[in-house]
Structure of sphingosine kinase:
Amino acid sequence: DVPSLSPTRRSCGVMVLVNPQSGRGQAMALYNTHIQRMLTEAGVPHTLVVTERQNHARELVRSADLSQWDAVIILSGDGLLFEVVNGLMERPDWEQAIRTPLGILPGGSGNALAASLHFYSGASPVWGEDLLTSCGFLLCKALLSCQVSGLDLVSIRLSSGARLFSFLSLAWGFVADVDIESEQFRQIGAIRFILGTLLRLASLRVYRGRLAYLPAGDSEKGDDLTTDHLVAPLDEPVPQGWTCVDEQEFVLVLAMFQSHLSEDFHVSPDARNDDGLIHLYYVSAGVSRAALLRVFRAMQTGSNLHGACTHLKYVRAQALRLEPLCTDGMMTVDGERVESAVVQAQVHRAAARIVR
Ligand code: ADP
Ligand code: MG
């Protein structure tokens, strides 16, 4: 018998959410050929739920009886987990709901969290279907021994007033443009980010804006998600103790909450799922294409970016405010497009839970 992650109640095992449209549209085939067999062999009771449209998973977890499930497992890209996390946070009982153990298996084209967790596990790096089977093995092992660890959530306040919860990244400029522009190459899988990067390098742009951040200090685990106590209202200056970067033209601003931006882009080797840190990178205008290419190549190998290029800055932060002062240039949260306008973010250490 499988020990339940919540031993106080009867369990139906795990819910497995699959987005059949993610990646190259092969997630169902991947489930059938690998994951179902692994869960069955491991003796993990599971129920398959195939999403029918965008926001289906979000609505489902908003109203589901979560007490039935030991964990909610997502076989898709990061986009489906983003829906699940934000759906859980929209519930009246969100404080309890967000403690539901979540699991992620790489079935999309952007599998950044799965690649990050796989990296933290110490397993040798693999890609594509090998990454899926390796993650599947690690997940089954963790489910059988009830291993759950904290997952940082970053609360992101948009200028519209909307509040989103992110586990991966906030990007503006180059990286966000690549993410959205390369969606048209979804059929080629994770390689789309490399192709998109090369295309965007060929027509390099700059983006005027302002950036300020609160340098990292002590953070508590499982802190309160109710309010973002570190940030000031948007119509007020940033609080004392924040660092203001001079208004300037940027090539990119990238706030990373995990190690990987995609299977191929290992941006932040020091990041961990519950480090309570925003790993903030920004590149100022004036950088040469060659230098920028070196930065992206360093990311592909996971080597240290410090000193890779004089235009690249890296700081560890707990909160930030980013204010675009130009109309072009996209902004993304966990790879999903949001309005490109002033945003604030604050990390909440280990606010969610991930099976690993
Ligand atoms: P990928 O990494 O390939 O982009 P994602 O998991 O990020 O895969 O999913 C991409 C988008 O598809 C997400 O915005 C998600 O909300 C949406 N989605 C989920 N289920 C479906 C579906 N059945 N049909 C179409 N889109 C869906
Ligand atoms: Mg996606």
The chain has a mean pLDDT of 93. The first helix runs from residue 27 to 42. The two ends are 20 Å apart (CA to CA). Residues 74 and 81 are 6 Å apart (CA to CA).
